Amino acid sequence: xxxxxxxxxxxxxxxxFEETPHGAGIVTSECILEAVNLLAGxxxxxxxxxxxxxxxxxxxxASEHVDLMLCTFANYERWLDSTEQVGEIEAIEAMESAxxxxxxxxxxxxxxxxxxxxxxxSGTQVLVEAHHA
Length: 133
What we know:
With about 130 residues, the protein is mainly beta. About 15% of the residues lie in helices and about 50% in strands.
């Protein structure tokens, strides 16, 4: 099931996220459909709680090039705890400088999966659609 929380509530770090405006959209236990304007250097983060065999379908499109990454919550947390956050996150799937991504992930175990989207350009419009089944 999807966590019934906005990413801002789960991953509140004022220095990194406070300036990113809330977008328009729908976030339920079954899907996410959200449009957001990202500021340069800011991350958009979504967390999904999956059981063995669950499928997560993610589609992202952006007006400018963005970096996209799907990783476990544990790997994301390790990266956040690193002193300078300059290292790579061990990812399930990663794309740099993309304007679109469609990806289906089938969970082999109970796990929390995190989708991270970042942009080097202010005002990047991002549309995120995710379905959990």
